[in-house]
Amino acid sequence: MLTEITLTPAIGTRLTVTIHDLAFGGEGVARTGEFVVFVPFVLVGETVEVELTEVKKRFGRAKLLRVVTASPHRAVPQCRYFGECGGCQYQHIDYATQLEMKRKQISDLFERIGKFSSAVVAPVIPCPQPYGYRNRIMIRSQWNKLRQGLEIGFIRHDNRLVVDIEECKIAEPALNEQILKVRAHPPPKGGIKVVLRALPEDWEVPPDSFFQNNFFLLPKLVETARECLRAGGARHLVDVYCGVGFFGIALGDLVESFVGVELDQLAIKAARRNATRHGRTNGEFVIGRAEELLPQLLEKFPPATTAVILDPPRTGCLPESLELLRQTRPAQIIYVSCHPATLARDLNILCADGVFELREVTPVDMFPQTQHVECVADVRLRTDAEQSSLANADGMVLTQPT
């Protein structure tokens, strides 16, 4: 039975609520009267007993005490640290439901932030290995004053303390072996971060340079981007935030020429060697800030036959870069993002006034068991006739016949 309240409750209040939605990030959403409660580790339709841990005027957050009525899609987590460790949010949900839920969350974000129809979001491409897939993790050390020992692991889901762990169920086996070595030879003090990594075959990746974290689904990510580029028919490619040259090299056979830009000097040097290793001779890589070099890169090729691939950090692209793309108007933009909210925001800017059209967003589940998901967006330049038609449609005043 739903416990209803009319006044703002206090921290420590226990409630029985029914979950009616899951917000992006994984928290369940419930209401008791006009008060909204966010609860982790629950599913839609479940009735749960919770205890409030944070209270604002109109909403609060709570910890899960007990599942009163469980969803048929609830699964048994494989990790003994799930619920404490902040690395995973969805191990309690069966994998098929995770995929459906992520598509809904992305669709909701695109409707709310990007003002796009949910129809542009394709079904999520599943990972063939939902556990044991991560090829890079970062573990932390923290001194525990209470037990006078060093905690080695991940940040908790509910605070900044470290959960001491001996294994990570979503990490590749080689990384779990490295975790044991770190524990056998721990850092000298707390506050030290240790990056553990399994390197890809046939790619040179410097220690601090970016590479996709899931080798098992990487072919599908490349295939999705290739399908976009092939359908767009571009003859030239500008690879922005190119890292070690992965996308430019992987897609370079579809175009006459390409250029990649990246601020990380070691990554650019690795990209040049990676191009040689993969026999890719029709491209070049330049060092510098994408925002500063983009104008001259876009002048290098005719806009009507050029595609731009964007793979920025989670924060997305700078407004001036998006405006530059709107001014130079390349024929296609392929936007790869691990943050659907910033992706929706940036696409809203690109597509304003009908300059570009978002054809499709394809989610690729590079991060099973977690709130994160990679997306590939296919954006095309509208023709002058299409833009004029849209402008006329927006400006029309409809009247009822007399």
Features of the shown structure:
single chain; 402 residues; alpha/beta; OB fold (Dihydrolipoamide Acetyltransferase, E2P); Rossmann fold; 3 domains; seven-stranded mixed beta sheet; five-stranded mixed beta barrel; 27% helix; disordered C terminus
Structural overview:
By secondary structure, the protein is of the alpha/beta class. 27% of the residues lie in helices and 27% in strands. It has nine helices and 16 strands. It has a seven-stranded mixed beta sheet, with helices on both faces. Helix 6 packs parallel to helix 7 (319-328). The protein is globular, with a radius of gyration of 24 Å. Mean pLDDT is 93; it is low at 396-402.
